[in-house]
């Protein structure tokens, strides 16, 4: 920020709404607030050269706004007056409403306006900036100097107070109806259990459960390609037991996704792990290529929840806990769309260079992406013994005494929670480790591993033990990938049967090394 006119315009566009909210909170008058904010911008522009750190601008400018408010009050010899209305944040009424609808809207406006006005000032300004002005939690945090978790708590407390004064269940839908003309809302998320909790929470909107497993089997940049889809369906049937006809129902999900423009607002609900980050990146890649028109995209992506000690996913939450997340999503910006597309294109690439380039890219727009992508590459055979992180952790856990399948899955899943691996996928990995002349494990007490179509009741009581080769590989005396040379996929990277794995993961440097052919 050097004082150029275009910089002034950008700053005014970005911070005017926040400044007005702060000024109005101090002065209680729309017109006074407008004048004060204009004076504050004038003062800020005149002193930009004194600001050494541009990232400190939000808090610095807030101080200027508040100082201008105090000056204005001294000049006018006024004290703070009660809030008399929030009409400045309302859109014009839709004149197409019939008189009855208009009367209901007016009454709801009045009730909401009066209810917001009596909130404590810290809650009131958070509600105005987040719900009415549409700022993200990060933007509000920077401007007010309040940490994001504290803002979430203020919004939750504000919603609780407003519910007691308004006869509605889903307060977020009220904001949507009043200020955005009544939007159809679509929630896209992973997992039927979490979707059921969302339905029970009373949060308004349709729900689309995205049933895919991009962490297993072949994937491609264009998952809608007929040839790619049929190839994937064939592999998933062979490895996971998912009937091709069942998998190809993904086309119905795609059709629903393609009709997204019938909704005026979409919320993507996802988590931090690789399983979810691949789904999120696929959807962001898709939406980046679409004309969104009047549809607003939102994102809720978390890696923790206050009441959950070891957070693994939204499926852990009760309907009440899900409801508390209502409205804590933020509007997806172009940087996030671009970052999602970048993740997906790298993840599905058959060229290792694209994967390596992504590790060095700026992924800050999606805070969980880099860790998830490293977890993705850690599934490659390692430089030390040819085991991927799943096989390595499994052998270590069995050696430590966890020998039965279900406790083993739980233990490995907890250690590798960054993968977000489900049981169906894990049983396929275990099965691969017990097969062929280079088996690492022996299964005793059962004859088959569970998959989508079959289950052996004896499986839960079965015992897994390391073979002699498993012991040698775990100690670094043998290289499993060099011996086995079977077919597998790691994202878009495909190792064909009989081919030596050329690329190896180096856990120490968290990068990939090339192995010379022998």
TrEMBL record:
Keywords: Sigma factor, Transcription, Transcription regulation. GO terms for molecular function: DNA binding; sigma factor activity. One of its GO terms (biological process) is DNA-templated transcription initiation. Residues 111-162 form the RNA polymerase sigma factor 70 region 4 type domain. Residues 186-293 form the DUF1835 domain. It comes from the Bacteria. It holds the Pfam family DUF1835. Residues 11-78 form the RNA polymerase sigma-70 region domain. Belongs to the sigma-70 factor family. ECF subfamily. PANTHER family: RNA POLYMERASE ECF-TYPE SIGMA FACTO, RNA POLYMERASE SIGMA FACTOR. This is ECF subfamily RNA polymerase sigma-24 factor. It comes from Paenibacillus amylolyticus. The lineage of its organism: Bacteria, Bacillati, Bacillota, Bacilli, Bacillales.
């Amino acid at each position: 920020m050097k004082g150029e006119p275009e910089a002034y315009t950008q700053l005014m566009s970005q911070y005017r709404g926040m400044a007005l909210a702060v000024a109005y909170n101090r002065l209680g008058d729309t017109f006074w607030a407008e004048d004060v904010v204009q004076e504050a911008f004038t003062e800020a522009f005149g002193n930009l050269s004194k600001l050494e750190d541009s990232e400190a601008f939000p808090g610095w400018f807030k101080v200027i706004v508040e100082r201008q408010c105090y000056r204005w009050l001294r000049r006018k010899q006024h004290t703070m007056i009660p809030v008399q209305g929030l009409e400045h944040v309302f859109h014009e009424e839709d004149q197409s409403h019939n008189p009855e609808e208009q009367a209901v809207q007016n009454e709801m406006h009045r009730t909401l306006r009066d209810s917001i006005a009596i909130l404590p000032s810290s809650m009131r300004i958070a509600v105005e900036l987040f719900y009415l002005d549409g700022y993200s939690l990060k933007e509000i945090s920077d401007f007010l100097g309040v940490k994001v978790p504290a803002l979430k708590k203020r919004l939750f407390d504000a919603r609780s107070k407003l519910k007691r004064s308004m006869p509605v269940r889903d307060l977020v839908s009220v904001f949507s109806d009043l200020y955005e003309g009544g939007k159809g809302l679509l929630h896209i998320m992973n997992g039927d259990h979490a979707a059921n909790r969302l339905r029970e929470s009373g949060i308004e909107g349709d729900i689309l459960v995205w049933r895919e497993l991009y962490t297993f089997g072949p994937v491609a940049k264009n998952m809608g390609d007929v040839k790619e889809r049929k190839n994937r369906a064939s592999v998933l049937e062979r490895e996971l037991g998912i009937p091709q006809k069942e998998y190809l129902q993904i086309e119905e999900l795609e059709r629903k996704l393609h009709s997204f423009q019938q909704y005026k607002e979409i919320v993507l609900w996802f988590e931090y792990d690789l399983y979810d980050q691949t789904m999120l990146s696929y959807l962001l890649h898709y939406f980046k290529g679409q004309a969104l028109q009047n549809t607003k995209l939102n994102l809720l992506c978390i890696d923790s929840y206050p009441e959950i000690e070891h957070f693994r996913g939204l499926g852990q939450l009760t309907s009440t806990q899900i409801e508390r997340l209502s409205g804590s999503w933020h509007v997806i910006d172009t940087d996030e769309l671009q970052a999602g597309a970048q993740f997906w294109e790298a993840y599905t690439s058959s060229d290792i260079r694209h994967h390596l380039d992504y590790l060095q890219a700026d992924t800050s727009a999606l805070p969980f992406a880099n860790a998830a992508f490293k977890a993705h590459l850690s599934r490659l055979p390692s430089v030390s013994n040819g085991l991927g992180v799943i096989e390595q952790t499994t052998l270590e856990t069995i050696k430590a005494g966890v020998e039965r399948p279900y406790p083993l899955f739980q233990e490995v899943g907890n250690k590798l929670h960054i993968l977000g691996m489900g049981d169906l996928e894990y049983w396929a990995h275990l099965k691969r480790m017990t097969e062929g002349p280079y088996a690492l494990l022996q299964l005793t007490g059962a004859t088959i591993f569970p998959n989508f179509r079959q289950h052996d009741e004896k499986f839960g009581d079965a015992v897994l033990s390391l073979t002699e080769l498993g012991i040698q590989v775990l100690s670094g005396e043998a290289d499993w990938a060099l011996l086995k040379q079977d077919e597998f996929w790691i994202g878009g990277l495909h190792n064909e049967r009989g081919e030596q794995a050329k690329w190896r993961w180096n856990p120490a440097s968290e990068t990939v090394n090339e192995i010379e052919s022998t």
